[in-house]
Amino acid sequence: MKFLLVFSILFLVYGCSDQDAGETTPESESINPRVGLIDEAGFQNLVADREGKILLINVWATWCIPCREEFPELVKIANEYHQQNVNVVGISADFPDEIESKVEPFLKSQNAGFKNYVENFEDDEAFINSVNPEWSGALPATFVYDRDGVLRQSHFGQNDLDGFRKMIEQVRQADVE
Amino acid sequence: MSLKYLPRLFAVSIIVLSFNLANCSDVEKSNNLRIKDFTLQDYNGNKFSLSDFKDSTGIVVMFIATQCPVSNAYNERMVALYDDYQPKGFAFVGINSNKQESVEEIKEHSQKHNFEFPVLKDWNNVIADQFEASVTPEIYVLNSNFDLLYHGRIDNSRRESDVKSQDLRAALNEILARKPVSSTETKAFGCTIKRVSK
């Protein structure tokens, strides 16, 4: 009986922790980021498939200095909102063949456990216009979608912790209203 | 004046008005951005004004950087553009507005990459603000009145081997042929210009 109880507890604690292979736990001790590619269709699916959660997308690149500077704040936001129905997703503008050499090592160094992709659109302009036609393409850029997948907030340029929080909270507030 | 001349006067007014409207509209302009003349120095202290290039077929203004990998991916392509279009009457001007990139750094970078066009230092990003430039590399092509003819990217890929659309070359070719630029606005993609706090 004791064995059954211990097994049940262990199952409850660990058995359900990796239901979605694509969504790693931000606060896990050993971050092993697996970065996928995202194209136009994948991006539309990402935005549409909300499951009642707000979505914050940050577009960044390893070669972008302000992106690297703001990234620790992004990691904090992902950890802070992980249990609060907010998905944080990064989309890197590095090349697909730089995932192993640049993108994943950078994410590991940042202890970034949230989902990240590398954009694989037809070209950069197609990517920019899909995300937000009003965006010039300057990195970094952050976009927040509401629970219905509607783009509600855009921030062009480097952001900070308070800025990220405000974007999320404003979308939350609008969702409540 | 007799009332009998009124219809004739009305007709003449319409013709004059139509003529003026036709002269005011310039099919070559891409938008209403009108750049004012400015003067900046290159890395040797030589002064360059936009008005120095007024007799050119067009003025190609390129916001570039020394440290940005995207801008640097275009170094050879910018040299090739200069080599191909400067002899056809286009003026090329590089502008560095990044606060963290020094004049010495710009000089070293320009010499290393064989830039024959002037690269001007835009202190406090005043000129980047005037152009509303966001990234490097970002291109503006102006006519002799400093009207904007083309704005955006050099081509559609940071990797030269993947280029499918030579947008800047297409625009320059149309200007050379005295045709309206068919694609006046594309999206430049690159490193954000590091501005001073104002």
Textual characterization of the structure:
The complex is a heterodimer of chains A (177) and B (198). Chain A has 177 residues and is α/β, with parallel strands linked by helices. Chain A has a single domain (31-176), classed as 3-Layer(aba) Sandwich (Glutaredoxin), CATH 3.40.30. Chain A contains six helices and six strands. Chain A has helices at 2-15, 40-48, 65-81, 99-109, 124-131, 161-176, and strands at residues 36-38, 54-60, 86-92, 115-119, 141-145, 151-156. In chain A, strand 5 (141-145) and strand 6 form a beta hairpin. The termini of chain A are far apart. By secondary structure, chain B is an alpha+beta fold. Helices cover 31% and strands 19% of the residues of chain B. Chain B has a seven-stranded mixed β-sheet, covered by helices on one side. Chain B is globular. The model of chain B is unreliable at 9-29 (pLDDT under 50). The interface between A and B is medium-sized, with 19 and 22 residues.
Supply the key terms.
heterodimer; A: 177 residues; alpha/beta; Glutaredoxin; 6 helices; 19% strand; globular; disordered N terminus; B: 198 residues; alpha+beta
